[in-house]
Amino acid sequence: MPVKDYLRRRYFPHLWCAGCGHGIVMGNLIRAIEQLGLEKNEVVMVSGIGCSSRLPGYVDFHTLHTLHGRALAFAVGIKMGRPHLKVIVPMGDGDALSIGGNHFIHAARRNINMTAIIMNNCIYGMTGGQFSPLTPFGKMATTATRGTIDHAFDTVELAKGAGASFVARTTTYHVKEMVLIFKEAIQHKGFAVVEVLSQCPTYYGRKNRLGSAVEMMAWFKENTISVGSKKKKENPELIERGIFVREERFEYTSNYEALIERHQS
Amino acid sequence: MKGKQVFMQGNQAVVEGALYAGLRFYAGYPITPSTEIAETLSERLPDIGGIFIQMEDEIASMCAIIGASLTGLKVMTATSGPGFSLMQEAIGYAIMAEVPVVVVDVQRGGPSTGLPTSVSQGDVMQARWGTHGEHSIITLTASDLQQVFFMTVEAFNLAETYRTPVIVLLDEVVGHMREKFVIPESGAIEVLDRLYTSLPRDVDYHPYLPREDGRLPMSDFGGVHRYNVTGLFHDMWGFPTNDPKIAYGLLHHLVDKLENRADLIARYREYHTEHAEILLISYGSSARSALHLIEERVKRGTRIGLLELQSLWPFPKQIVHNLCRGRSHILVVEMNMGQIYQEVKKVAPDPSRVFLSNRFDGVFITPDDIMHVLSVVTGKGV
Fold first, then answer.
1. What number is the ipTM of this complex?
2. Between chains, do B222 and A84 touch, taking CB under 8 Å as contact?
3. What is the mean pLDDT of chain B?
4. What is the CATH number of the domain that holds B50?
5. pLDDT, tens digit, for every residue of B216-248?
6. In CATH, what number does A19-264 get?
7. Sign of CA dihedral A206, A210, A212, A217
8. B156 inside 8 A of chain A by CB
9. How many CB pairs under 8 A join A and B?
10. Chain B CB contacts of A70 below 8 Å
11. B156: which of A131, A164, A227, B332 lies 20 to 30 Å off by Cα?
């Protein structure tokens, strides 16, 4: 089925700015779902608030646009209520790891079977360009006009530390890799985290003189490297991409089914 | 009434009522004085294949029950004042997205961490206005455990009928008090199931298009109809919109569906009101002291009665107005600084006859406390 058949075309044009990376993520999520052969009725997308969180509204699945930072908490209710559904949670960097940081680490700790996608554009876009917990140290934002003095989280390390059993990173430049990672993440039985570096030319790019969307994507190409590559040793500044963690671990909805059996026996 | 007679705590009566009404999903976070609800359900829900989950905080608990309700389950959470504050944003979401949920607030002394183990009725206005923006909400309460059971069942029924959050507002005394009550036989009292759309697969379903009677049939997430749910103003498919006409219409719908049916939603009990010159109005545990006092005074020939409110929101304006008419004195008895007293003054035919007997020091209000105020306001001295 072509990508357009998964879209709610009634609501187009979408609200993302020209050059925004989020549409690439949406297209690739659809491709991954289509390639996995999932029925539309078995997919639920849950989002919070922000530019990224408008994604579910445009796609023809069961979609829930919730509160800022709370997408994973709503998603836990849906997944527990109907464990057979594929629950995918696209979030922004501020949404997932600032206001939603607590829900993120606890969903990871439980290892509940769902896919968390963090569309990291290093900025709060919807509110006009404030720094987020993923804005690199020293970068400009409307609330850090002389450079942020906050240190950024490393999403991959945070997810690993919190107990996610699948952790990956990719970028909007690496579109084929993104589809492959999405497919792996959706099929993984456990809490899967995928960080996608996504460009915001309107705010983050402009504030930090990073050029056009194309130039920002070229930066992703030149400054990221496959995980395990020797080049990382030569240049520690390079950002690693790929699958960092993929482990079979006790998963929450399965554990709960076992608990019910213990209660009823 | 036929059924099983039990002796247990108020918080456990909530559990019994919820299970009777069909509760299948509970998410919560420990907090005094409501914790026994979570403890009991952690045991009871898995027994029947239901879901109990202890979330990372009250915000997550409230969000999780909304998510689970959308999959077709009857859901509940329980908390006390501080946790109730944290839930308010998501309660507003459930109002806007029209998701049936039941929220129990076993009140304790506030503001802030306040008096965690003491009685209070300070959250009456938080139940009404805790979430931001214009809205309406249903709030039920009870003073004895049989009624705690019934009001909990009612809360689930009203949540399904109006697709709205319903607050069960108890207080520490009712939550921790033990007494006997009857759990009715299955089918003895009405339990409403969710109203589902009859539209088949592949027919365009409008989750936010009310029927002629104002009700909105639902379709479960994971079912055959795919739609969007949002906390933004939305069209009949649930897609966000800024259209002023849609915003105006939706807000009117959300408020009118409850406020225009305030008399229908109203739950209350009257004691000796028919010939009463003096009318006491109370609710929750303070109504027990009010009832004790009037039973005593009626025996001595005083023409005094009690209106016990079991629903606080939407405020039963017309009922309270009618019952206040012709009384020499109206005394509102509550454990806060006059939250329902102000509402009664707004609707009483003669507000100058409305007085307040209250406590807000964490100590349970006694019949003597009420009698003392009654003597003063009726001019019989201190």
1. 0.98
2. yes
3. 97
4. 3.40.50.970
5. 999 999 999 999 999 999 999 999 999 999 999
6. 3.40.50.970
7. negative
8. no
9. 132
10. 59-60, 63, 90
11. B332
